[in-house]
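--- STAGE predict ---
source: upstream dedup step, 1 unique chain passed
mode: sequence only
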Amino acid sequence: MIAVIALIGSAVLLAAGPTAVAVDGWNRLAAMMDHRLACDAPCTRPKIDERSVLAGKIDVTPLSVTDDAEREVRVADATVQYWRGAVFIPHVTLAQLLDSLLTEPPRQPDVLSGRITSRNGDHITVRLRVIRRTILTVVYDTDHDMAFRRQSSGIATSRSVMTRATEVVDAGSSSEHPRPADDDRGYLWRLNSYWWYEQRPDGVLAVLDSLTLSRDVPLVIRPIAGPLIRRVAAESVTAAMQGLRDRNYSLK
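--- STAGE serialize ---
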């Protein structure tokens, strides 16, 4: 196990910022997702196991981004994680949920702190300190641009784009400092989140499509590192679902 950790650690140190090819591929994926979200009513809700979610289960599923011909779209020189999460939030209205999200940042296990830095109607910017745990524990300070769209009286969508991610070294200590950009280890390069909110008679159904870009995983460690990366992605989406369900909406 020590040898495996050393191998993965040495491979991680080889990471740099995303290549031009990776950024171009990511931009194509993001454009596809943006197009699907920016639909005119009636929009089509993302597919989920509705019966299970309405019964109280948090549903988290890995997906692949596909084009109009249902062919998977890949990004060279990078790793893309695409996950869908769904949760039912009982005893809350869509108006209460949107008001809460527009006035307070998310509270969830992987968000250490957060604040809304600006608001203009249904558009906000948010600053978060997030933590990711695999073999190593990594802390990031991130900025997110979030825009909400009320499709109808019972349906709303939102799009969140991470505009900055700075790794924090020795987070929480007196020696805390940002990791230099030229020493980027590539754990988190891009993050887009696409949300669907639907009013039901006794609550709100929420669906999240989460799309992330990180460094490519060397072939030699992919059998070991791949499952760890997928687990962290799944845990992050699950935490977002839990945080949304467990908010105290009665105080809003």
